[in-house]
Amino acid sequence: MNEDEQPSLDHLSIPELIELGQPDPLIRRVDALVGRRDWAAMIDLRDRCQEAVERGKQLWGVAHHVDYRLALDADPELAAAVVDSAASRFTLGPLTEVAASQHTWHELEPSLPVGPSRDIVGYERALRGDPPADINRVLEIPAALAEWEPDYLIPTYKSDRVQDDPPDFGKGEVVELGEPGETITDLETTDALAHLAATWTEHSNGTVEALAVEGAATSAIAALGLKQAAMTEITLQQAMVLMAWTAGSGGAHGQRTGGASGRFAAWWALACLTEFTDDWPPDPDQLGAAGAGLRWYWWSDLYPSTGWACRIAVEDPETGYAWVLNAADAD
327, 200 in Cβ contact below 8 A? Predict the structure, then answer.
């Protein structure tokens, strides 16, 4: 054996591995237990790791991974039992979303704890075409999608990663932007747009700019200091998909906030753009009609994308105002 090679510990028992504080072979044991669907042994392993953490062993990641795999792979009653777990703060995504990605509301509901997590699972199931009839409006907006809302992008959770592909609007048409618009103060709206990428900026390497101007969408983009941009006009539905995807995503290094959270953030941004915040929560039909009256654009700065991006511009033909968001994150 080379000096750099480490002897295999896979022959050791779970208690022995815990005493050695070895997370990697324990993670492999979790995989094996999932393969055998031995949920009782997984729960025992988690509890042993949690006890060892109290004794100074660095095994909290293993305990959290067990709860993640229970939410992802276990029977509905066990998946429902972990949605309130503290592991939600450290796994690939909130366990409310993980559990909802694999089980119907009918399967989960009898075992869900009473409280906000139960309701968030309901919102997540609504995104998947399975809206519950009896949850509290913990997010204030309706759980069931409005008729004007799109089919939102749904992530795919796997044992060691989450697949969360962005919407694709093509390359766009390169346009000369002209003169920048005069910047105006609209903090409520620009803050709402910037907040869509809050996880990217607060928990990853992201940057974000959001501003409002007098003028058209091209004038708003030009106010960022650009002379040219590739632009594609998109629908309200496409814009909602992009905004919700951004707000629900973790970017390069952050944790997903979840589809329900992303949809809420998109609703709030739309309400700010259409001046519906004073009557929050707005009438869904009125909000959708107002949003459809705006002109929406996806745009690019012509540089190759190196990671996550949300570049959106909006103009209001009636008021002559426009807004732009430039958010990006990279490894």
Answer: yes
